[in-house]
Amino acid sequence: MKKSLFTKILREKKLMLSPLSGYTDYPYRQILAKFEPPFITTEMVNARAVVEGNQRTVQMLKKVTGSHFNGAQLLGKDPNFMAKAAKIIENMGFDYVDINMGCTVRKVISKGEGVSLMKDEMLACKIVKTVFNAVDIPVTVKLRTGFCQQSINVISLSQKLACSGAAAITIHGRTGEKKFGNPLNIHQMREVASTLSIPVIANGGVFSGIDAQNMLFQIGAAAAMPGRGILGNPWIIPEILCNFSGDIFTFPTLQEKKDICAEHIHNVCEFYGEKFGVLKMRRIVFLYFSSCRYLKSLKSDIHMAETIDNIHALLHKIKEVDGVWIYE
Ligand SMILES: Cc1cc2nc3c(=O)[nH]c(=O)nc-3n(C[C@H](O)[C@H](O)[C@H](O)COP(=O)(O)O)c2cc1C
Fold first, then answer.
1. Best mutation site among 15, 16, 17, 20 for ligand 1, i.e. most ligand atoms within 8 A of its Cβ?
2. What is the pLDDT along the chain (328 residues), one digit of tens a residue?
3. Nearest protein Cα to ligand 1, atom 20
4. Confidence (pTM)
5. Domains of the chain, residue spans
6. 3-245 to CATH, choices 3.40.1190.10, 3.40.50.12160, 3.20.20.70, 3.30.70.1320
7. Which atom number of ligand 1 is nearest to the Cα of residue 43?
8. How many CB atoms lie within 10 A of CB 260?
9. Exposed e or buried b for every residue in 297-312, given b needs 16+ CB within 10 A?
10. How large is the greatest C-alpha to C-alpha distance in the chain, in angstroms?
């Protein structure tokens, strides 16, 4: 995919979905694709593991077909490994590659990867430059406002990353302390969006079409990126797109939610096998029914589920009574 096309679609559609480790796996990306988002990114994959052809990593990179463009997100700090991995990703047919400079998992930070790269601007730029020189697909970067509150450098770093070849920058508007409760640093995000000529994608706290609209308005960003908002709610894709286009969006019925959830369960169990698939779905199914009464009971019952049939039996117990969804 040419950088100019990537930029055009991003600016037109104004929507990019988050990579979510453990969630935006192949089975869920298949579900997301049905809702026709412009772009779908894999969860983060380790660059070294890509280069070494690690079986599990290759499985994580399985590409989903659909009308969207496919991106893969790389984690790592060695510019040469990152470049080699990006080339492999390009050869696999991915349309763009995203570089993770925002992950706050302790194991990742201790290796100097993820958000740690924000502390080493020279290395961060070298990675982007080396990857940029190695591939023909667009290279994007996802970062935060800074490594921590004491080192907020997103404005200077994003300018340098743009000069190093980044086609777009995603900013999760928080520092690396990993507290979702902390407010977004709107000022820093807006400053970056107004100074960069490449598109800026604004991320953090987008849970609805209105949130996405507000995000664009407040930040002046090219696109909005929902993260946790896509979990159990692929309908957020048409909701946001309708909000932007002015079309009417109709929220899903309970039956529609159950059907897509059932398809997700099927995809997961087909991909990982029933045993692991059911374990995985234990922490996903209830996300589809977040507005359901007695959700706590559903959550605890689902932790006992051992088979697909067990999960289906629980779904059967979610009913609509006088317009309210209830787990009985
Ligand atoms: C479970 C989970 C997994 C995540 N995995 C990744 C990842 O693989 N790569 C990444 O760049 N960010 C990852 N993130 C961060 C999100 O992409 C996003 O930046 C963050 O959740 C803020 O957006 P939100 O407030 O809309 O959720 C993850 C977040 C969560 C909650």
1. 20
2. 899 999 999 999 999 999 999 999 999 999 999 999 999 999 999 999 999 999 999 999 999 999 999 999 999 999 999 999 999 999 999 999 999 999 999 999 999 999 999 999 999 999 999 999 999 999 999 999 999 999 999 999 999 999 999 999 999 999 998 678 888 999 999 999 999 999 999 999 999 999 999 999 999 999 999 999 999 999 999 999 999 999 999 999 999 999 999 999 999 999 999 999 999 999 999 999 998 999 999 999 999 999 999 999 999 999 999 999 999 8
3. 227
4. 0.96
5. 3-245, 254-327
6. 3.20.20.70
7. 8
8. 19
9. ebbebbeebeebeebe
10. 60
- How far apart, in whole angstroms, are the C-alpha atoms of residue 50 and residue 171? 25
Distance (Å) from CA 18 to ligand 1 centroid: 6
18 within ligand 1 shell (Cβ under 6 A): yes
Q: Which helix (H) or strand (E) holds 144?
A: strand 139-146
Indicate which residue's Cα is closest to atom 30 of ligand 1.
20
Between CA 124 and CA 112 the distance in angstroms is 11
Ligand 1 within 6 A of CB of 43: yes
**Sheet (strand 200-203) strand order:** 39-46, 69-75, 96-101, 139-146, 168-175, 200-203, 223-225
Distance between Cα 274 and ligand 1 center (Å): 26
What is the Å distance from ligand 1's center to 204 Cα? 9
